[in-house]
C-alpha cells in the first residue's frame, strides 16, 4: 500500500479530485484501487456508462466521460487537481484528442497529468507508438506538470486478447522468436500511476519505465497452463504468417501492422529490460510483480 502523500496534506488542495480517465479499464481500474488505498480524498472514475460501473470501484465516484463528446468535459473537470490519461485502443491519430484534453484541463485549472504511454524505445516503428510520442511531446510542452508512465507489454494481454483462442485451442501465437520480454503487471502500472498522481512534485517531468523481470512466451504458456489447469502452448510464426493469420481472423489492418511491428521488437531482444525496472523498485519499494504473482491476483 502507498503511504499517504504529502500532496494530500497541502492546504488548499484537500478538496481537489483525482480524475481517472479509462477508469474502468485494465490500468485505470488498478490506478483507482491504489488511489483509494492510499487515502486519496476524492477519486472520479471516468466512464461512458457511469450508471452501470463495476461494483469493484463503487467506493469511487463514477462520472461521465466520452472522448467523442468534448462538450461534456468541463463539468467533469471541475475541482479536479490531477488526471490519469489513458487512450482507448483506436486507430491513430489520437494526438489531437490529447491536445484537446490538455486545453480543457488548463481551462479547468488542473495541475498535473499522468499519461500512460508505451514502448518509447521503438515508437517510430509502429503508428500507435509514433502517435503516442507526438501526444507525449504535447504534454511535455503544455505548461502543466506531468509524468509519463512508459509501459512495456502488459501481462494482461494474453488473457485480454487471446482468452477465447487459448480456451478453445490451447494455443496462442506470436513472432517473438524465443526472446525474453519484460512484461509488466497492470496492477503495478496502477500503483506507480497512483503514486505519481498523489505526489506531482516528486514525479513531475519524469518518464517512469514500467517493466518486470523478463520471460519468454514459452514461460507464459507454462504459467497459463498452471493457472488455467489446461495445457497451453505458444506457437512462434514468421511475421508474415502471423500477419496473414491475424488478417484472416478479422483483425483490422492498422492493428495487424502495429502488432506485427511490436512482435519484431520482441524478436530483436530489446523488449528485454532484465530483472525489472529500477524506476518501479524506487517507487514501489519492491520488485515488480512476476507473471505468476499477477495470475494469482486475478
Ligand atoms: N497492452 C499493452 O501491452 C500496452 C502497452 C503499452 C501501452 N498500451 C496502451 O494502453 C492503452 C490501453 O490501456 P488500458 O488497457 O488500461 O485500457 P482499456 O482496458 O482498453 O480501457 C479503455 C478504457 O477507455 C474507456 N473508453 C473506451 N472508449 C471510450 C470513449 N469513446 N470515451 C471514453 N472512454 C472510452 C473504457 O471505459 P468505458 O467503456 O467504461 O467507457 C475503458 O475504461 C492503449 O492506449 C495502448 O496503446 C498498451
Task: Supply the key terms.
disordered N terminus; 43% helix; alpha/beta; Rossmann fold; seven-stranded parallel β-sheet; single chain; 298 residues; 14 helices; binds NADP nicotinamide-adenine-dinucleotide phosphate
Describe the structure.
By secondary structure, the protein is α/β, with parallel strands linked by helices. It has a domain at 6-156 and 185-213 and 274-296: Rossmann fold (3-Layer(aba) Sandwich), CATH 3.40.50. Helix content is 43%, strand content 15%. The chain is built from 14 helices and nine strands. A seven-stranded parallel beta sheet has the order 3-2-1-4-5-6-8, sandwiched between helices. A two-stranded parallel ribbon has the order 7-9. Helix 5 (127-140) links the parallel strand 5 (112-118) and strand 6. Helix 2 (26-37) crosses helix 8 (186-198), helix 4 (95-107) packs parallel to helix 5 (127-140) and helix 11 (239-248) runs antiparallel to helix 12 (253-268). The longest helix is centred in the last third of the chain and has 16 residues, at 253-268. Mean pLDDT is 91; it is low at 1-5 and 7-12. The structure holds NADP nicotinamide-adenine-dinucleotide phosphate. The site of NADP nicotinamide-adenine-dinucleotide phosphate has 24 residues, from helix 2 and strand 5. NADP nicotinamide-adenine-dinucleotide phosphate (NAP) binds at residues 22, 24-28, 47-49, 65-68, 86-89, 116, 118, 128, 151, 153-154, 157.
Amino acid at each position: 500500500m502507498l503511504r499517504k502523500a504529502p500532496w494530500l496534506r497541502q492546504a488548499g488542495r484537500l478538496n481537489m479530485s483525482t480524475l481517472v480517465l479509462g477508469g474502468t479499464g485494465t490500468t485505470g481500474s488498478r490506478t483507482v484501487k491504489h488511489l483509494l488505498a492510499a487515502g486519496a480524498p476524492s477519486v472520479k472514475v471516468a466512464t461512458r456508462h457511469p450508471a452501470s460501473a463495476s461494483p469493484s470501484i463503487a467506493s469511487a465516484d463514477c462520472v461521465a466521460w466520452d472522448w467523442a463528446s468534448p462538450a461534456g468535459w468541463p463539468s467533469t473537470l471541475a475541482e479536479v487537481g490531477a488526471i490519469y490519461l489513458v487512450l482507448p485502443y483506436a486507430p491513430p491519430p489520437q494526438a489531437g484528442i490529447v491536445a484537446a484534453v490538455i486545453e480543457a484541463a488548463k481551462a479547468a485549472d488542473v495541475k498535473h497529468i499522468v499519461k500512460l504511454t508505451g514502448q518509447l524505445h521503438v515508437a517510430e516503428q509502429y503508428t500507435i507508438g509514433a502517435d503516442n510520442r507526438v501526444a507525449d511531446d504535447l504534454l511535455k510542452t503544455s505548461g502543466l506538470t506531468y509524468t509519463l508512465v512508459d509501459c512495456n507489454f502488459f501481462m494482461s494481454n494474453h488473457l485480454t486478447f487471446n482468452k477465447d483462442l487459448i480456451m478453445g485451442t490451447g494455443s496462442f501465437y506470436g513472432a517473438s522468436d524465443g526472446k525474453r520480454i519484460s512484461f509488466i503487471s497492470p496492477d503495478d502500472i496502477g500503483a506507480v500511476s497512483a503514486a505519481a498522481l498523489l505526489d506531482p512534485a516528486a514525479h513531475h517531468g519524469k518518464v517512469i519505465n514500467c517493466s518486470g523481470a523478463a520471460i519468454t512466451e514459452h514461460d507464459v504458456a507454462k504459467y497459463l497452463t498452471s493457472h488455467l489447469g489446461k495445457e497451453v502452448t505458444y506457437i512462434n510464426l514468421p511475421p508474415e504468417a502471423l500477419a496473414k493469420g491475424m488478417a484472416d481472423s478479422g483483425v483490422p489492418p492498422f492493428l495487424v501492422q502495429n502488432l506485427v511491428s511490436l512482435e519484431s521488437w520482441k524478436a530483436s531482444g530489446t523488449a528485454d529490460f532484465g530483472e525489472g525496472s529500477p524506476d518501479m523498485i524506487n517507487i514501489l519499494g519492491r520488485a515488480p510483480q512476476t507473471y505468476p504473482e499477477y495470475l494469482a491476483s486475478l
